[in-house]
Amino acid sequence: MTNRISPVAPSLKDLGARKKRPAATVVASFRFYAELNDFIAPERRRREFDFDCATEATIKHVIEAIGVPHTEVDLILVNGVSVDFAQRLRPGDRISVYPKFEAFDISPLLRLRPHPLHITRFVADAHLGGLARLLRMAGFDTVYDNAFDDAEIERIAGSDERIVLTRDRELLKRRSISRGCYVYAQKPDAQLSEILARLDLAGSLRPLSRCLKCNAPLLAVEKAQILDALLPRVREHQQDFSTCSVCRRVFWEGSHWRQMLDRLAQALKMAGDQQASKRAVQSSFPG
């Protein structure tokens, strides 16, 4: 009779040791520039630091593990070469991560974004109702409902090709969100100036062309068609009117209209000042 050696089943202790065994990692060096430093730990800001990366992780996952939403990143250089978010890292790689540039044309280098949007459209999270109203005032198609949860915002952003606006960095880390802005400012007027500056939207405004309530475009309407809806004073002094096709509210160029135009003009001035300041910093050194 031939003796056979039966395989020894692993003990529970052995199985436990296997489960505890750490995944393979590589060590790479990272450096984040400009406002991206606001997302990372203070001891890592504006300096190069080493970070342990799982060998199977993409550079997108590693950047977000460090704390930076991928939507805030506009350029990644690995050992001086532009790469996309799917890049895997090797031991000793040196990674430089940049936000949107104002002072330099880096379009030949970019590897991160899908095709550019032909129309700038937004979806704002539940905490940015004031900003959404101001963006509509400026003429930008902005979807907002304070009942939207993160999953609904992600769905709308994908289906309508909208830029997500939020102060929740975890929302911007969602996989299918490719375009988004973390809003730093806390007051609506400052938020508007920030978005106009960051996305260079000064030339895209169409002031007071949308309903602030419904987001629908306003349509010119003949005075004779809306006489019954007008107050006597308005009927006497105003000749040009527009209306919302959804809520049917009527608008005219009165004092409130002029106040809104003044508010937009101030936001544009602040945006221009912000861009000039950022260009000055980046022209000297982008960090």
Structural account:
- The structure is a single chain.
- It contains eight helices and twelve strands.
- It has 287 residues and is α/β, with parallel strands linked by helices.
- The chain folds into three domains: 22-98, Beta-grasp domain (Ubiquitin-like (UB roll)); 121-208 and 257-280; 218-253, no CATH class.
- The strands form three sheets. The protein has a five-stranded mixed sheet, with no helix packed on it.
- Helix 3 (129-137) crosses helix 6 (188-198) and helix 6 crosses helix 8.
- The longest helix has 30 residues, at 255-284.
In short:
By secondary structure, this protein is α/β, with parallel strands linked by helices.
Overall structural class, as computed from helix and strand content, comes to: alpha/beta
How many strands, what sense, and barrel or not for the largest sheet?
Answer: 5 strands, mixed
**Number of structurally distinct domains:** 3
Unreliable runs: 1-8
The radius of gyration is 26 Å
Work out the strand percent: 15-25%
User: How large is the count of helical segments?
Assistant: 8
Mean pLDDT: 86
Gross geometry: elongated
Strand neighbour order, sheet with most strands: 2-1-5-3-4
* Quaternary state of the chains: single chain
The residue fraction in helices comes out at: 25-40%
User: How far apart are the first and last residues' alpha carbons, in Å?
Assistant: 78 Å
Say how many strands there are: 12
> Which H/E pattern describes the elements?
HEEHEEEEHEHEHEHEHEEH
Task: Name some characteristics of this structure.
elongated, four-stranded parallel β-sheet, 8 helices, Ubiquitin-like (UB roll), 287 residues, five-stranded mixed β-sheet, single chain, alpha/beta, 3 domains, 12 strands
